[in-house]
Target: Glycosyltransferase family 2 protein
Amino acid sequence: MVDIIISMVVFKTPASQIDAVLSSFLNESNIINIEIYIFDNGLDSSIRDYCNVKGFNYLTLNNNVGFSGGHNFILKSTSSRAKSYLILNPDVYLMSDALNKLYIFMQSHSDCGIVSPKILNPDNTIQYVCRLLPTPIDLVSRRFFSRFIKPYLNKTELRFTNYDKTYDVPFIHGACLLINSAAYELVNGFDERYFLYMEDLDICRRISKSHRVYFYPEASAVHGHAKGSYKNKKLLYYHIISAIKYFNKWGWFFDLKRTETNKATLRKLLYYNF
Model:
């Protein structure tokens, strides 16, 4: 059994970018055993050739199965072969010793189902990836009116914590998540109804029923974070469809668990202005 299976899903991503991302941690003296799997939704022969040269596992199907489908195909085909799974976007660069730190943290916390490092922008500012469980209004406000609601984002994105301490949260953006393999298998992986977007929120909610979702700032990574749905109408369409599916599943304006979870989180983090 290996310690971590690295799971990366790509679509028309240059092999040079994938190599740069993987090189950010492969050249370190890792204390853990890893296997790397790349699922190609774009059927790109250059990525297949790159994997063959590097000795990585290349997987693909005859069609684009989306983010959830790609990761599930990797992880379900390697079931029981790893203690944990790293869900890694192809634009996330792990900083010094981050992978070791995440793994050690998970192994030393038996209640840990998911752990994420601190995520930074390329200019070294913080990406606010820790979130309360969103309402429909939250998503619309963040998407279209973010510049006008900074005090509101201070609460919903937990900015008031300064992102400088370890805590468990309802939801962490899925750019770089180390997932306990037992927790992943308990919930049967990602919900493949989400082709792209919202799958990270959904799996955090399901895993948090039995484990905790941790933010661990002692490990860090840099994320290019293209915000594709802000620039591409097709990606915005996927985002809207996934949001509809999410709220149909969990509740639109009447979601008692969301309300209870968010209030408990704010109290625990000493935010009382709600």
Observations:
- The mean pLDDT is 92.
- The radius of gyration is 18 Å.
- The longest helix spans residues 233-250.
- DSSP finds eleven helices and eleven strands in the chain.
